[in-house]
Structure formats: C-alpha cells, structure tokens
Amino acid sequence: MATASATLHLPVSADTVWQLVGGFLSLPDWLPLIATSEPAEGGRLRKLTTQDGAVIVERLEFFDNQTRTYRYSITEGPFPVTDYLATLQVSGAGSNETQVTWSGRFTPNGIPEADAVALFQGIYEGGLQALKANF
Questions:
Q1: Domain 2-132: which CATH class?
Q2: Nearest-5° Cα angle at 67, 62 to 71
Q3: Percentage, residues of the chain above pLDDT 70
Q4: What 8-state DSSP symbol labels residue 95?
C-alpha cells in the first residue's frame, strides 16, 4: 500500500478553516479543479465533476466535527489505484494557528508506486495551495 500526504499551516482559526472545508460537499467552494459536487445516498456519496468533465464518486467513510476530520474512499474515478482511502483533517493550536493535513493510502493499479504517489502528492499539495488562496 502506498501513501501520500501534504500539510498546510494557516494564520487563521481552525474553526474558520473547517467552516470552509468541513462540508463533504464543499470541494467546489475551495478547490477550483472541482466544478460540481452532487450528493447521493443522503449525502454519504458525492459525485464530483472536474473542470475538464471527469467524474469521481467518493463515499464518506468517517466524519467527526469535534476533531474536524473526515475520511472518504473513491468508488469510481479516473485514477490508476484501488483501495483508496483519504483523510482531511483541520487542527488548531490557537486562534491564529491552524494545520490542514490531506493524506491518503492506496494500491497502485497498472502504474509504478512512485507514479501513483506523485499523482496524489500533487493533488494534495495543489489542493492545499488552492485552499490557502481563500485566506
């Protein structure tokens, strides 16, 4: 199993960041790559459509508002991996000190592990840089 992870530090409160990213359907609010996020199964699934028309379906596996954490799996998508499970976590040590971590584990499918890791590392780092632009 391969892993990738990216971390961002922001000079705002964790609650403020969580208000933007904590909704499972909120990706289009802060991630320009995602054009739409449509709910299914009472909000347990999200059908994402990217700006270039690709479709990704993700399942919410765990959500905890108290710890500002959610985990999701990919059930359908263009990625060359299986057994994908990612975590988005927002933690804060003060009113102006927040850490956002986006990480995942997955099994490469038809590509070298290093390529799969680089793919998701790039997604996580790019996504967090997009988030940073909101603050």
A1: alpha beta
A2: 25
A3: 99
A4: T
